Amino acid sequence: MRNLCFVTFLLVYTTVTAQFRSYSNEFLNIGVDARAFAMGNAVVANVSDANSTYWNPAGLTQIGDRWQAAAMHAEYFQSIAKYDFAAAAIPLGNDNVVGVSVFRFGVDNILNTTELIDSQGNIDYDRISSFSASDYALALSYAGNFFQIENLDFGLNAKLIYRNVGKFANSYGFGLDAGAQYRQGDFAAGIMLRDITSTFNVWSINEDALNQLEINGVILNEPPEETLELTLPKVQVGVSQKVYFGERFTGLGELDLMFNFRNGNELVSAGGLSFSPAAGIEVGYDDMIFLRAGVNNFQKTINFDGNQEIQFQPNIGLGFKYNGISIDYALTDIGDKSIALYSNIFSVKIDMAEFY
């Protein structure tokens, strides 16, 4: 029973003490949209729909003169964790667009055994309850040709973040993103600056609810003293090109670089900066059926024998579009070539411009 209590405390303690790391809010770095996942997340230059609220808000200028909506659902760790995303974009005229998006990443029905043992040392299973560990975010986006530079659009995100670990702890945060896209014919280039303000979260910890557990004179769930965590900025840059094969077939390719301002396991890491590539392709037929593939998440890892190897994440996906409704599917980490999450991802998009 003591081991069971320890597992619960360890889960709560690990979640809260993440504030000591040089990065946080990692649920906002997973990505959205099955199309993007299938293309290895290499979409910062070519994204042009409601999902731009996440990948590059400057892409919102391409949605046309009617509103769009998009949604995604994904499950990880055999459906233990669930990730949901929804977005909408509304044109204001003169190529100005506003967007809103919401995120939730959560693990529900976690057993709370912190009160399993009463004050007399007796085990009472009726004292077991459950809680959720959930992360939420609301992003407001605005995009347009702010500086009147031909073919160059800009976008901004303002993010409000709420994170909750049952009755044990919660936090509120705020941050800003900025993006830009340049388009010349079928060529596009893009840049996305995430957390340019070093997004912060302020935690409030309910020490009474933790019901401190002491074994052999050691407190296993000592709450952290620090209550502020910071999210370091990230940068994604990319270029894309669209080509045509006859009257019905099209091809789209993009190559991106992902930069982190920290030392990490990426392909190149030195002096507090690391980066790795990502690439994706999309082949379309009659602007209706799409086949996609991509590779990303290149990392250096150490095997059990002590040798270093490079792991990566290959992905594939399908898309179907008809009368303004798009349904996309992605299967990530084909062949389990990386330590990344493995998942089936579905998303849907509605484009009201095609209903008129």
What secondary-structure arrangement, pairings included, does this model have?
Layout (H helix, E strand, L loop, with lengths): L1 H15 L17 H5 L13 H4 L12 E9 L4 E13 L2 E17 L16 E16 L7 E14 L3 E16 L2 E8 L5 E6 L1 H4 L3 E2 L2 E2 L8 E3 L3 E12 L3 E12 L7 E3 L2 E13 L3 E14 L5 E15 L2 E8 L11 E8 L5
Uncertain segments = 1-20
Radius of gyration based on Cα positions: 22 Å
Q: Could you tell me how far the N terminus lies from the C terminus, measured between alpha carbons in angstroms?
A: 63 Å
Give the neighbour order of strands across the main sheet: 1-2-3-4-5-6-7-12-13-15-16-17-18-19
Overall helicity: under 10%
Mean pLDDT rating: 84
Q: Number of helical runs?
A: 4
| DSSP strand tally | 19
- The succession of helices and strands, N to C, reads HHHEEEEEEEEHEEEEEEEEEEE
Give the quaternary arrangement of the chains: single chain
Can you summarize the main beta sheet?
14 strands, antiparallel, barrel
Which descriptor suits the 3D outline? Answer: globular
Beta-strand content bin: over 45%
> Which structural class fits the helix and strand makeup?
mainly beta
